[in-house]
Amino acid sequence: MLKIAWSDAFAHSLPEGHRFPMAKYDLLPEQLLYEGTITEANLFAPAPLPERFILDTHCPTYWQRLRQLQLTPSEIRKTGFPLSDELVNREVIIMNGTVQAALFALEYGIGMNIAGGTHHAFTNRGEGFCLLNDIAIAANYLLNYKGVNKILVVDLDVHQGNGTAQIFRDEPRVFTFSMHCGHNYPFHKEQSDLDIPLAEGTDDAAYLRQLQTILPRLLDEVQPEFIFFQSGVDVLATDKLGKLGMTIAGCKERDRTVLELCKRHALPVAVSMGGGYSKQIAHIIEAHANTFRLAQQLWF
């Protein structure tokens, strides 16, 4: 059964003025339920992640300062959100959503988080709407407690996964792959194991040609036992914070490429939704919903 992390806290703990497009965290499961792609049985509400698993990835000093709301005004501005207890608790729940999705992936082949993809969080700081790094925390959980020895991170958000790259810079068991718009946030890029910076306006055909050439080769070279897929839909031409030129149909083919390869190679995959900031929220919901539709079609 497809298992999907979702909680009221994903949207409702955000401050006023930051609810759009974060309303997708409520609208997306509503759409999937309405159309019959999923039922209530597919959804699970993660508990907050125990602190010890956060500390496997994040600096203890940073975590204590974050938990006690002691970040400086400059640090808070870089995260993009006013800091609050509700916001920190939201982040800790999201972290466990991806950990649990990874465990469901080991059992069923795929697990998904309606939130997550917080790839701009570093070991010792947050940036870009990210306080903690769910992909890194879940990857370390698998390495430390589940006997997984090789992980591939496939980050296809429009923005480079700079925090994930920094966290795993010296960890050979995790290979970080980021394909993103080269001239976009973050303007100082970290070095992933493989970065593919794309030109502004890259369309469906050029994007898919790159991905369909690179990803099969990576699977052969890296030989991963597990994949984390950051499936941000800010690659759309309609996105306010992205600079690529993809359509909703092209974004769906991107996801099909990744998920079909995982299925064909019997590679468990945990999917985090990542960014999506189109002016029309219907575009965001449709593009994200396609990822869940494909998961159901391919695995179940």
Automatic annotation (TrEMBL):
Official protein name in the record: Histone deacetylase
Domain (Histone deacetylase) ranges: 18-288
Keyword Transcription regulation on entry: no
Family, similarity comment: Belongs to the histone deacetylase family.
Organism this protein belongs to: Pontibacter fetidus
InterPro entries (alphabetical): HDAC_classIV, HDACs, His_deacetylse_dom, His_deacetylse_dom_sf, Ureohydrolase_dom_sf
UniProt superkingdom: Bacteria
Signal peptide, first to last residue: none
GO molecular-function terms, A-Z: histone deacetylase activity; hydrolase activity
The entry's keywords: Hydrolase
GO BP terms, alphabetized: epigenetic regulation of gene expression
